[in-house]
Amino acid sequence: MKEIVVISGKGGTGKTSIVASFALLAQNAVLADCDVDAANLHLVLKPEIKSRQDFMGGKLARIVPDLCTGCGICDDLCRYDAIEEEPHPNNPASSLYKVKPIACEGCGVCVYFCPDSAIEFEKQKCGELFISDMRFGPMVHAKLGIAEENSGKLVALVRQHSKEIAKRKAANFIIIDGPPGLGCPVISSITGADIVLIVTEPTISGLSDLARVGKLAKHFNIPATVCINKWDINPSVAEEIYGYCGKHQIKMLGKIRYDNSFTKAQIQGITIPEYTTGILADEVKAIWDNLVRELNVQVGKIKSIS
Of 276, 256, 255, nearest to 264 (Cα)? Predict the structure, then answer.
């Protein structure tokens, strides 16, 4: 069982459409959508949810009115302006305090220093994790709540469940639709993976994003590969990307032309190979074949070293 992570330096590169196509081509894989902040793989694969569980993330402070003596220490110490003073309902000369949930960062300073132990500090539901079946096999995905934190922890949970299912099903691959960018959820998605596929596009910003994500993969000693989506909208920059990959020993797996079949397939909720059997589908299939070939090469290198 090998773990493949598909990432990009920014959103909108076609990463999710490519992952969905890989789900069909792999034949025996577990899919994981680790873009928990903006999950959309389910829109193409239409999974049927079999089970769900709450994701309990960061803690939130809550002042218990009956225990609060109105000393104001919490208000003085809070650096996030999350404590709100209001008149005591039974004694207008004194005050009570309450926490503004949206402003609270869950640091716990108020809890630690409250002399009356009047502040509760409990974990909050930050999202949900789903285990589903779709037409190509099992899928694990999640949804982080609006403005919630700990996306990296939720990503790790998605990967954990994916590995457990893959072992139980004797799957050949875990294919991960990773989040865009370089932040905590990306790091949580790629750490310990067998190979990374970076989907880029032929723009100056695309080349810059590729360089940054490539350095991240190198930092974690994960083999990085690249494919260029919509390469023909700017062939000169596509050539620059080829040159960059050659210079930095990043394996180029191929390129995909611009084609509105990507959009049409998404609208119908199907993958590229399901939508068309033309050149576009051949290009996507070639990238998958090259990815598996490179994965086997990397595995061979590890075995020779050991």
Answer: 276
Joined together, the tokens standing for residue 9 give: 């330096």
CATH number at residue 73: 3.30.70.20
Strands 137-144, 119-134: parallel, antiparallel or unpaired by DSSP?
Answer: antiparallel
Same domain, 197 and 140: yes
Matching residue, tokens 């076609």: 14
In a domain, 195, yes or no: yes
Q: Residue 102 burial (CB < 10 Å; 0-12/13-18/19+)?
A: exposed
168 plus 275 within the same structural domain: yes
* Residues 108, 182 share a domain: no
In this predicted model, what pLDDT tens digit does every residue of 235-267 receive, in sequence order?
Answer: 999 999 999 999 999 999 999 999 998 889 988
DSSP 3-state of 305? helix
Which of these, 62, 65, 64, 73, lies nearest to 114 by C-alpha position?
Answer: 73
pTM of the model: 0.86
Residue 303 has pLDDT above 60, yes or no: no
Q: Is residue 148 located within the same domain as residue 288?
A: yes
**Which tens digit of pLDDT belongs to each residue from 80-133?**
999 998 887 766 667 889 999 888 888 999 999 999 999 999 888 888 999 999
The pLDDT score that the predictor gives to residue 208 is 93
| 130, part of any domain | no
With CA atoms as reference, report the closest residue to 251 among 204, 304, 203, 301. Answer: 301
Q: Which helix (H) or strand (E) holds 173?
A: strand 173-180
Q: Does residue 198 have a pLDDT over 90?
A: yes
Q: Which two tokens stand for residue 146?
A: 């609006």
Q: How many CA atoms lie within 13 A of 167 on its CB side?
A: 5
What is the span of the domain harbouring residue 7? 2-46+135-305
Bridge-based pairing of strands 137-144 and 29-33 is parallel
> Which residues on neighbouring strands pair with residue 54, listed in sequence order?
128
Of 124, 161, 123, nearest to 142 (Cα)?
A: 161
